[in-house]
What we know:
Layout: H1 2-20, E1 24-27, H2 44-49, E2 57-61, E3 64-69, H3 74-81, E4 87-90, H4 99-106, E5 112-114, H5 122-131, E6 138-140, H6 145-149, E7 162-163, H7 166-169, H8 173-186, E8 191-194, H9 197-204, E9 206-207, E10 219-224, E11 228-232, H10 240-247, E12 250-253, H11 258-263, E13 269-273, H12 280-289, E14 290-294, H13 298-304, H14 308-335, H15 343-355, E15 360-363, E16 368-371, E17 395-400, E18 402-404, E19 407-408, E20 411-416, H16 422-439, E21 442-444, H17 449-461, E22 472-474, E23 483-488, E24 505-508, E25 511-514, E26 518-521, E27 524-534, E28 537-544, H18 562-579, H19 585-594
Parallel strand pairs: 1-5, 3-4, 5-6, 8-13, 11-12, 13-14
Antiparallel strand pairs: 1-2, 2-3, 7-9, 8-10, 10-11, 15-18, 16-17, 17-20, 18-19, 21-28, 22-23, 24-27, 25-26, 27-28
Amino acid sequence: MENQIIQGRLAALRLAMKEAGVDFYMMPTADFHNSEYVSDYFKVREYFCGFTGSNGDLLLWQEGAGLWTDGRYFIQAERELEGTGVTLFRMLDEGVPTLTEFLKEHIKDGQTFGFDGRVVSAREGRQFEKALAGKQVRICCDRDLAGEVWKDRPALPCGPVRVLPGEIAGRSLEEKREQVRREMEKQEAGGFLLSKLDDIMWLLNIRGCDVECNPVALSYLYLTEKETVLFIQGRALEGEAEAYLASKGVTCREYGEVLPFLESLEKGSRVLVDGNCVSYALFKALEKRGEPVEKKNPTELLKAVKSPEELAHMEEIYLKDSAALTKFIYWLKTHIGREEITEISAADYLEGLRRQIPEFLDLSFPTIAAYDANAAMMHYEAVPESFAVLRPEGMLLVDSGGQYLGGTTDVTRTIVLGPVSQEIKKHFTLVAAAMLQLAHAKWLYGCTGRNLDILAREPLWEIGLDYKCGTGHGVGYILNVHEGPQSLRWRYTGGNEALLEAGMDVTNEPGVYVEGSHGIRTENVMVVRNGEKNEYGQFMYFDTLTYVPIDREAIDPAYLTPLQRQYLNEYHRAVYEKIGPMLEDGERAWLKEATSEI
Length: 598
């Protein structure tokens, strides 16, 4: 039935395309700010094909449709697209064309390519321009055809904005704004258009609730030497927030006024803008009035390097969060087989433990609780219509995190519920070794995550295994769980890399995913620190924030080197020392055994 509904929606959109003279129409996974996660209002791609993953682009034409997504979602997409008439294009697989390559090959001279220019980044929009420049193709970006067809579309979200207490924010709005203005001056830019939601929240020391699990408010910011203009839905500002912004010299205008504002800028204005974040529609408006200065948002790097105050709060929050997950593992181990536990009820129980932490605000992303073969899907999500009942055998992978007044957490543990095969033990042991090996990296300043990624993959590459995602990403401070510019990944992505700076945080999450059998991931969050400095330069190292036991029941010491075994024992000693005092007697006794030396 669901597939028939999807087919009906696609048929209606094809009719709208025909009436508008559009031959190919693209729907990305994005909002007006190129955010990774989006509110229901922006889930256009999901509405028209049924794929629920957080990354993917849908291309529709009269004779067919295609979805492009990455390796995290291949299994999930294959299942969700079945019977819809939408073909899965597995990104980065050998012989699979990119969406742009496919479009360039199949669109004919004289045809029209369309998309909503508000939800496509300037960088991507101009890539389409360049790719299609050799053909007589018209680009139509000023109509939301999908939105016109989607009659029962949810409302644009508008939740209340809250102001961060000064002791939690660390640095003041004035201090941050002055840092940004100095960067603008270096670029000889009179204005700065900021559309990245988490950057705006960071700069103004406010938080919203317009995207599930991401404490951001739909907004734009325009900054000059003397002015700070925030475009936001007026209903989102209540009492304290409105007064606070006014006291900081921030002028508030309605969210929808940003385009007319840009169109009224003084002719020839030099405006700093990040083409990866700002929309194609706004960039085109800037081009007509002034001279866009394309550089990375200076706020991105400033935000990524956490202040000493932020790091102090994070260390405290990560211990509390680690204790909650440790309590959950104890509960699961002692209740499995004695009562019915499902993927959903397990996730709910863990959320309940987090909610007992006084600083808890929300989850940082929907909890992934994936049993046995379900764990082979990296971003699997159990739903009331489809979930597994846990049994005292196999393993449960739990990837979860919380938003707290003091930090954002992200942690994964794979928990043994009963007997597992020798192959699974081997994979589990090597994943643990991979995570610990990377955690002990030492390097000279000047490295990016690409220099270090192999430390995590080496134990798996040695036996011909890999995982189709990066090893690590930055984590926001009471912000988005995925944050840049830092990352840990081996593949060269065309110069979009960042040096690892002291104060940055990054996840460490290698894994093994065997379709139809099992999935294993072990994830901690680490902070980059300065080590010794000598005649060779500044050495760097990682400091771990996450302290949760790694399940010894799936560890086979035969697959560990003496050094890796030492790393595991040292980590478990630290887990017991830091988390033990936060547990009740029965939990502490269990943790003592769970962290005993191998």
